[in-house]
Amino acid sequence: xxxxxxxxxxKHISLSANETEQFCSLFEQKLIPKxxxxxxxxxxxxxxxxxxxxxxRVYHIDKxxxxxxxxxxxxxxxxxxxxxxxxxxxxxxxxxxxxxxxVLIISKKDKEFAYANLPQIEKLFxxxxxxxHVALQRRMIDNLSKTAESRYIEFTEKYPQLVQxxxxxxxxxxxxITNVFLSNIRKKIAVKK
Amino acid sequence: xxxxxxxxxxKHISLSANETEQFCSLFEQKLIPKxxxxxxxxxxxxxxxxxxxxxxRVYHIDKxxxxxxxxxxxxxxxxxxxxxxxxxxxxxxxxxxxxxxxVLIISKKDKEFAYANLPQIEKLFxxxxxxxHVALQRRMIDNLSKTAESRYIEFTEKYPQLVQxxxxxxxxxxxxITNVFLSNIRKKIAVKK
DNA sequence: TTTATTTATTAAACTAGTTTAATGTTTTGA
DNA sequence: TCAAAACATTAAACTAGTTTAATAAATAAA
Lengths: 193, 193
Prior knowledge:
Two copies of one chain form a homodimer. Helices cover 51% and strands 23% of the residues of chain A. Chain A is built from nine helices and eight strands. Chain A is α+β, with helices and mostly antiparallel strands. Chain A starts with a helix and ends with a helix. The radius of gyration of chain A is 18 Å and the shape is globular. In chain A, the strands form two sheets. A four-stranded antiparallel β-sheet of chain A has the order 1-8-3-6. Chain A has a four-stranded antiparallel β-sheet with strand order 2-7-4-5, with helices on one face. The first copy, chain A, has helices at 3-12, 17-24, 82-87, 108-117, 119-145, 148-158, 160-163, 168-175, 179-192, and strands spanning 28-32, 37-39, 47-53, 55-61, 67-74, 78-79, 93-97, 101-107. At the A-B interface, helix 3 and helix 5 of A face helix 3 and helix 5 of B. Chain A binds a DNA duplex through helix 9.
């Protein structure tokens, strides 16, 4: 059950078999059917999750009712609201399954236990947070400098497997444009070819 | 010389006087005159810095020659290109002093020494990276959902002391708009009052 | 299988933000 | 202290992206 998780940890740091086992034993599996929520706005996020099956979206709803997608998570990705989780304040985010999904969950308490007792875990999460931060910095620069059209093209090139599983509405909410405009972009690209 | 730095560390984690002293001794002071660079595109970023005086901007130049500002750093802020620093690949960023500045620098080697020998330092940087990541997530959502006008207003409210030290050109590059449009926004706001 | 719901597309009017260029103001530096 | 450079503002034409609404196509539900 935790095979994918072990593989994922090994990608970031080298951890002894023993420590890996101990750490993984702190997770429990949760099944999340399509359209249900792992987290809702207003709740305090008390977990960190590792997706082993399915697809989630992590999004915000602004005061005008529009949704902005912070990121998607498929197999092998981690999900949490790091803001709510670390500060223990109510979340501004929703985490929703877009497909029937399976996720390995570790509670805040158990994660703190791991930090205190498995010295390498601190490094694991430092390294992972750094990597996601770098990715977000790049996305920030892209959003500041590139047109919606090139952001869309780059998104489809970078995550082809993800694009097939997403509606254009979801992709538009990630790119920060309307689905109507995304439709125009897609038409323009199709004509070019 | 490292008083500000010690104070900053204490804000994030509790570290013994001895460990604090050891860690701070790894930094050396650098003076960066206005308009000179701490890092240029193409260089590998081999340091992490803590600003004790002055003002920096961390920015990217896109292929059309436009500048996007990732963040500013004044006294008490950390600066590095975390991407280049961790992956040891050439940077896509410039770090430039906008005022005569002073910065405490720790080299990659010494930082690794600290990770290996001062167990709490791993936590320090995990916590700091988490906090900057949360801030960037919030900015990402704002950029996806808010108009330039409200982003400008919120920026001036959040960083009033910074706004006074920045030209409108710099603020516009941070907000992701042209300085001409920022001028329009400022006029509109002034008329309202 | 039929109906209801969600999704994608198109069009047309609109608005937020850009571009270019000109003008006055402030800052910098020799 | 004077000239040059950088900065802020304004105007006017333009373009990227939105809004609303209608229609067709695909999916889900009963």
